[in-house]
Amino acid sequence: MEMNDKLPIIEFAFPGPLRDSLIAAIETGAKTSTSTLLRQYEVGNEALPAVGDTGCVVGSDGERLFALQTTGVDVVRLADVPLDHALAEGEGDTSVAQWRAGHMDFWTSAEIRAELGAEFEPDDDTLVVLERFAVVP
């Protein structure tokens, strides 16, 4: 059994084109951070990531691809997400406003509303978990 087979699964977005593009950005080194609403951890009854955590990224088809290790974690208000984090997400955003617009589209999508409740509406005070990571060779 390969090491990656024993690691917990890490999923980016939902299976499909967005997940595939995020994984490609990680593979090229463009994406070294991600953002998750604190509420998603709470609703899923999941522990927050911690420095040193290691998991295996899975593709849209469920295939285990490669390992990532958490190198930093911060919890901040949505209004306080810094530019360096937005840029490190590697999604082509050049400003925090652009990053926020794209993430708001995702965080208010039907899939996320199904997970967090139709009444959920992120705002400036919504807490966001900012996670930095590195690919494990």
TrEMBL record:
Residues 12-137 form the ASCH domain. InterPro entries: ASCH_domain (IPR007374), DUF984 (IPR009326), PUA-like_sf (IPR015947). Transmembrane segments: none annotated. PANTHER family: CYTOPLASMIC PROTEIN, CYTOPLASMIC PROTEIN-RELATED. This is ASCH domain-containing protein. It comes from Arthrobacter rhombi.
